[in-house]
Amino acid sequence: MDIATIIGIFFGFSCIFISIIGGADIAVFVHVPSMLITVGGMISATLIHFSLSQFLGIAPIVKKTLFWKMPSMQKLIQDMVNYSAISRRDGALALEKQLSDIHDPFLIKSLQMVVDGQDQEFIENSLFNEIHYLQERHQEGKKIMEFMGASAPSFGMIGTLIGLVAMLTSLDDPKNIGAGMAVALITTFYGALLANLLFIPLAGKLGIRSKQETLMREMIVEGVIGISKGEAPTAVRERMQTFVSAKNREELKPTIDMNKQKVA
Amino acid sequence: MDIATIIGIFFGFSCIFISIIGGADIAVFVHVPSMLITVGGMISATLIHFSLSQFLGIAPIVKKTLFWKMPSMQKLIQDMVNYSAISRRDGALALEKQLSDIHDPFLIKSLQMVVDGQDQEFIENSLFNEIHYLQERHQEGKKIMEFMGASAPSFGMIGTLIGLVAMLTSLDDPKNIGAGMAVALITTFYGALLANLLFIPLAGKLGIRSKQETLMREMIVEGVIGISKGEAPTAVRERMQTFVSAKNREELKPTIDMNKQKVA
Amino acid sequence: MDIATIIGIFFGFSCIFISIIGGADIAVFVHVPSMLITVGGMISATLIHFSLSQFLGIAPIVKKTLFWKMPSMQKLIQDMVNYSAISRRDGALALEKQLSDIHDPFLIKSLQMVVDGQDQEFIENSLFNEIHYLQERHQEGKKIMEFMGASAPSFGMIGTLIGLVAMLTSLDDPKNIGAGMAVALITTFYGALLANLLFIPLAGKLGIRSKQETLMREMIVEGVIGISKGEAPTAVRERMQTFVSAKNREELKPTIDMNKQKVA
Amino acid sequence: MDIATIIGIFFGFSCIFISIIGGADIAVFVHVPSMLITVGGMISATLIHFSLSQFLGIAPIVKKTLFWKMPSMQKLIQDMVNYSAISRRDGALALEKQLSDIHDPFLIKSLQMVVDGQDQEFIENSLFNEIHYLQERHQEGKKIMEFMGASAPSFGMIGTLIGLVAMLTSLDDPKNIGAGMAVALITTFYGALLANLLFIPLAGKLGIRSKQETLMREMIVEGVIGISKGEAPTAVRERMQTFVSAKNREELKPTIDMNKQKVA
Amino acid sequence: MDIATIIGIFFGFSCIFISIIGGADIAVFVHVPSMLITVGGMISATLIHFSLSQFLGIAPIVKKTLFWKMPSMQKLIQDMVNYSAISRRDGALALEKQLSDIHDPFLIKSLQMVVDGQDQEFIENSLFNEIHYLQERHQEGKKIMEFMGASAPSFGMIGTLIGLVAMLTSLDDPKNIGAGMAVALITTFYGALLANLLFIPLAGKLGIRSKQETLMREMIVEGVIGISKGEAPTAVRERMQTFVSAKNREELKPTIDMNKQKVA
After folding, report:
1. What ipTM describes this predicted complex?
2. Which residues lie below 8 Å from residue C147, measured CB to CB, with a gap of 6+?
3. Average pLDDT, whole number, for chain B?
4. CA–CA separation, E207 and E200 (whole Å)
5. What is d(CA B30, CA E38) in angstroms, rounded to the nearest whole number?
6. Is the model more confident about D240 or about A1?
7. Most-buried pick from A86, B38, B180, D262 (CB within 10 A)?
8. Is D102 strand, coil or helix?
9. Contact D219/D76 with Cβ under 8 angstroms?
10. Chain D residue closest in CA terms to E1
């Protein structure tokens, strides 16, 4: 999980916690029936809205996307430049030895296609198709999170309405009014907290992660096509650098690929 | 109806039910005049918004879409591969015998066109036209559900306003205040519940179902065109597999079509 | 007016009426100053937003669109098929005798152009221009209705604020509180009712009507072009049937045009 | 200012005024500090959002657009037809004498270009560029008005929050509660009134005015191009009439240009 | 920082301040725990939504964009006209001497490319790529500000819910009710103020600044391309003036470039 998410969640709940213990008993804010209606209602609505496989798939997608380790762009370009130098000197088959050192399955698959001598159009179509399905899965995850972020406050409000009606029909003892209303408001609190501190920001992070991952994969495709065409390392670097802003591009100039390639 | 919808509706209403009986008498929440204004107002607004045929058509569309049994993509591709093998060996007319075993009317119609020797462009146009009207009907159903989801809370609020005014004009007996307000809030509760647990998520499901059904039909069109062109089973499979992500594509490699075809 | 609109308005106001008399005196809900501020404010805002001619034009547009009698698609195609048969046998001039039996001015104008021997491109341009201005007028009417639907609740709220301030500044007699708040809430009730039971759904109906009327006119243009090109009745039917879903298309197969044409 | 805006503003404030004096003392609704926070906050936010030149430019743009006298389309076409007749008989230079009778600077500029013998493409580009910048200024004015319409209710609510907190911290004398809350609500009233009776509808009018003025200018461009090409008056009329719906087009048939031209 | 932003922020907070001290003790409105939950919650949600580098990058982007000194368009065109004259007389290399007087890094880079004799297509691609990344950074900054503007009121409401529950569970002493509710409302006040007086308008200003800066850079690209093509100063001016409305264009006619160029 990226560090910002961890800090955000930890810091956010600390603020809420401090805010609560400053004015009231924390026990008042832990109310299981209120959780049931807010979280249960939200999950029910999500199940009705989406298919079971989409719903069950959300956890792995979210986990994978949040924990996906974004590689350095410069390292990626450097690697591809090296692969292209190897491919030019020793032929595409020589890349096969490199595959065992790579961890990203998409990169492995891309290079394997070059090794297999697939033609350029086929590589491009296959990989962009792959990227397309990845994006669609990300979009699906994001939509489910957004729906949960819209649904949680609604069920919070429904819970509060139930609590208010319950309180209003038992007004005999005025001492109960305060406690009754307090309990009624807890569900609205739960709904607002879940939506604003978890679902809405996490949906946003999913979108940003998806964009980064897509960019990374498009750079790989660009590089692999250069390699499969037998382009010079400099040409491959230039292809990939169009995805990078000029400022960051300068820093990539020092090429240590030639040495590294001999080692390989 | 897909299992997620059933679980969601059952689980959702259980949460509401448990939540109610935990704090109040369930009888308080069953209030026929409140139902009349919320549901009646919503239905009236829907009738004014849409045409009578659209309104009456919503029930069958929703039912059909929710209960539509999504066939397995792999089975569909397998079947089409078999049909293409049959067509190549024994001629397109031989497909006619297969039609009796098929349940999907769209697939029957598609294959019948091949049997009838219609030219490829005509088949494509007719079937995409068909898909277009299907999507339009789905869209219509979705829009009506969404309008109901927006209308129900509004009439809930209108009901609450009526209840509040009624209560405020009869303040003589302070004991009535609580009960009056409780009754007034019931319509808001009904409106929020109908919108958030039924109409909004069901409209979402309709959209997802529509997308799946459209995809399925587009795969059929792609396959049928391959068959009508007399393509090899492998070519037909590849045409249809562009609709499937690479991961799921691997699993489809084992082709048992040749044996099956002889049986057929 | 289409039957759904009549049923919806009648049923909707009945629900409101029953709901009111069930709990309070109906007289409480008839409050002329509250009507003044809600309706008057809404009309004022609409006048400021739109031009006077647009504002005055809304009534006839709405009336015309709601009362426009949607002809049967099948009858329309049947008629056009007959006209094409007549035109092929007896020449385009023979269509002139048919014009007196037609009620739709758009259809009359379209056929008159064929009779006048206008060239096909001119007919197409003129008629699509006509359709374009019709759609624009519909869109204008829809926008005004939607603006009213957004404005009415706002002025309802403004009225309630005025009522609350009035009540709060005369708290001396606590007996007035209830009555004062009840009156204050009436404007919100008016605004919500006008928006949700009239303006928003009527704007929706205008949109649906506009779509139907546009489709009908596009079918006429398609048919008239076929006639002006001297196409066979079957070709004209096929042109027009692309606007109809396949299911409804079958029913149109029986052509009684040849007999009918001889009669004509 | 167009008559609808004047009627709307006058009628709207009358409704509010009558509504107020019916229930309360008008003095209660005139509260300078409340105006300060609602209007001052809104202006501050607008200054932060837009640049100073945009903010200062809003008044003249709004004034110009609202007071712009929409000329009659038929008169415009008639004039252009006359100019084209003059140009054809006596040459483009003869148009120069007409310029002194024209009030619209855009029309003067357009004809001057013809007189100067500019080529058609240059005229078209210059004038469409001009129209583009006009639209952009209109759009800017509209956006500022819309932002004010969104900002005013927010600062109304902020004022109410300040008032409520002030009232709640001085509850010692219960007699103050009513007056305190009444004052607190005044800012919400101001914000809602400014937004719904002024800024939102005026932004709408700006949009409609912009559309009309653009249409008028596009008609002028179309006509001027016809003149510069030396087209016949009828051709110029037909060019310009494509902007007019067929119904209004008939009325333009009587051409009195020939006589008028001789007079000129 | 542009003057409008400074005036707006100063004037806005003055209005709030005057409004507060008019009715209550200013100390009531300075409540640290309320700030913690509103600001802390908002920052937490922003961290969860965006990546750490985006979050940390917001401050410099906002600062740079707000403080970016918008150069005069007329001066920019004048300068470019001069550069083009120099380039035509003394060759592109002569521009190098001018670079030391320029402060805008983008302009320096653009001219350097001309000096370096890069071909026109390369210059265009590089510079538009640069502009694209600038816009993307601006967009990112704007999105973060907008998210904060949406998040602050939500955490304000969450804080108010916590405060209300705390108050309602300690109703024993009725004297606390007013103070408790006052404190509870402070967080809503903070959230509304931050959103409406800071984040939402500042996001708007970022957008307007971004548009201006982009326009300026596109004008530079246009001018530089003209210079690199060896176009005459008048042609360069005309290229750049297509970005300026005709009214402002007249004022640019007096060209003092020839004298200035000799000086250079």
Report:
1. 0.86
2. C45, C46, C49, C50, D204
3. 86
4. 11
5. 40
6. D240
7. B38
8. coil
9. yes
10. D48
